[in-house]
Amino acid sequence: MNVLLVYAHPEPQSLNGSLRDFSIKRLEDAGHTVQVSDLYAMQWKAVLDADDSTATQTGERFDPVRDSLRAFADGLQSKDIELEQQKLLWADAVILQFPLWWFSMPAILKGWVERVYAYGFAYGVGEHSDTHWGDRYGEGTLAGKRAMLMVTAGGWETHYGPRGINGPMDDILFPIQHGILHYPGFDVLPPFVIYRTDKIDPARFAVACEVLGQRLDSLWDTPPIPFRRQNAGEYHIPELSLKEHIAPGRSGFTVHSSDNQ
Ligand SMILES: Cc1cc2nc3c(=O)[nH]c(=O)nc-3n(C[C@H](O)[C@H](O)[C@H](O)COP(=O)(O)OP(=O)(O)OC[C@H]3O[C@@H](n4cnc5c(N)ncnc54)[C@H](O)[C@@H]3O)c2cc1C
Asked: Does a structural domain hold residue 52?
């Protein structure tokens, strides 16, 4: 199988760097082919702007949506974007690895998503009408592929527990797992999270690698998070709100997973 690891940490000798090296070796030893997009090492351009298209400037104002579509459709995207899209199409599984920074991904990784997820590639895919609002949330360009987050967090696991002050980790990761991964079609596996990173010592690191190794070994048969599919009949279209008999009386992120019915 082909695995793309998108890695966002500036320091190779960090905990994240060690986990990345462990993961590559574990996957390759199991016979998989791994490509790594090491965003800091690549000096990845994080900001989306007019330079993302090689089209001749016409003097029109820059429109991030329209210009993304034109560049994608006309083969005029900048080379770095095109290469990352090719890696995504090549991959059977994609891992996004990052330290939790201000309750989300580092800016360089957010910029990777903004630029690589072009109009026509990751959004604006499929028919958009009052009866079919695009191929998204379980359908789309990346359907059939698996994705998983590998995250390190300074906070304790209890800080992210059901009543923890930071809010549940599943809620914090929802915009990434549901909005960024499920949206263009990925089956999203439960995340691998390491908490309380300032207390990592060789013994805890060994335990973390043991658990991570098992997660990587079972990348192909771990059941994905049962996010509901937009076009499977559970949502009104085009309102895109859950039908009344699904999770009746409930709201919030958890209603979009079927195990919470
Ligand atoms: C801007 C910013 C925002 C942040 N926001 C949040 C937030 O919102 N929520 C939150 O919970 N945290 C937050 N943090 C903390 C952040 O999540 C952690 O600093 C990060 O996850 C640690 O990962 P690292 O790879 O940088 O670890 P490192 O600092 O490199 O290492 C952590 C520990 O692991 C040890 N270690 C590293 N490699 C090994 C190895 N091979 N074997 C054994 N031990 C090893 C190190 O000695 C160190 O003690 C934030 C940090 C920053 C800088």
From this structure: yes
